[in-house]
Amino acid sequence: MRVITAFLIALSVTLGLPAQDLEVNFYEGIDLYEGIDEKFYSGSNFGVKNPIYSAYPVSGMIRHNRVDGLFLGYQEEKMDWNNANFLGIENVDLHGLIGYSVAQDQLQYSIGAEKSIGTERKWLLLGGDLHNTTSTEDYWRTGIYENALTSFATGFDYHDYYNADGYGFYAIIKPVRFIELGASYNADEFSSLDVNTEFSVISNYSSFRPNPAIDSDLEQINKQSLTLGLTINPRTVNRHSSVWSTVSAKAEIADLGGTENDFFYNKYQVEAKSYFRLDHTTLFKWRLMAGSITGEAPDFKNFALGGIGSMRAVGFKSLTGNQMVLSNLEVELGKSNSYRDGWPDLSSFYISLFLDSGTSMFNQRYLETTNPVSDFDVGFSELSHNAGIGLGFGMFRAEVAKPIAGSEGRTSFWIRFNPTF
């Protein structure tokens, strides 16, 4: 039996919609835990607000990493569906980022605008963005501000970086409250970045990794692409249901005719998250991700598993390829709280037990096909597994993970300030 079969089954899990009118109850969600990136983090979309958000640079206005050093700036977030009025024009909102990278000695920026449409309910968002700034593909592993904290304090920087110089236009539509669709056209020049600083407060324990090039053959890459996204149940957990699921899918289409792209490829990813309230003190969580890349993608676009946020007892990014499967199972034990409609209170002390399973590898058949599903070939025997236990105190969590089967790994200790998923 193949992993892809199990993944398709997971997508068909009951979505947990309440019997009451969706228009009334759908947005009555519940926060299950805290995190330093809580306002930025999304429990339903690959760690960002929606699937097309990552078509644009993912960054923060105050950060520290090994390529920017200290970065200080000001940011107004995009895709927030704000009620702002610009120059008297209703529901037009400006967004962007401007700041200075000390280590690169460079001013970076992102500037854009968006218009939300709808009277009783906003159902359409149109926007655009012009940018030249540092970005990362690793936003889903650990939050931007969480990573900045560990980088500044100890030198452990778990993101890899590149410069994105370009522009894009996007549209997000909510035909009904529990479905969100998005599309974005982007034209970018991506460039490799060097390590420019090795500063950290506790430098004796630092781990200054090289920042890998975006590709082994090219230091700059031109790409025009179309990103498509779908989310079902974007608000994650509904307080009226004991079982709740959310599904997100995105496709990055760079195999476009009539373009001068340096690489022609298509990247597909699907993520399903399910929450099962076993009783007032016990929560079962499951994240299942799968992905495939057809054609030949640059190195920084390939999948990479291992380490923080993925498989916690496997070497950091040690499993790479053009196909990927990842499963994270967690049981969290907290205290009961009558104000949460029977959901456990995980905002103070809790215990977590977890099992991480997955793999990523190269499938040569994907270099010649455009079908992301037909040649997907990962068996259960090819998965690596690790298990562990964690103790949480609000947004602070300490974890110990140990490999139990599959690819080599080692017992690992993690300090986290965000949920894993």
TrEMBL record:
Recorded superkingdom: Bacteria
Keywords of this entry: Signal
Keyword Signal: yes
Gene3D superfamilies reported in the protein's UniProt record: membrane protein fhac: a member of the omp85/tpsb transporter family
Signal peptide (UniProt feature, chain positions): 1-19
Stated name of the protein: Surface antigen
Organism the protein comes from: Gracilimonas sediminicola
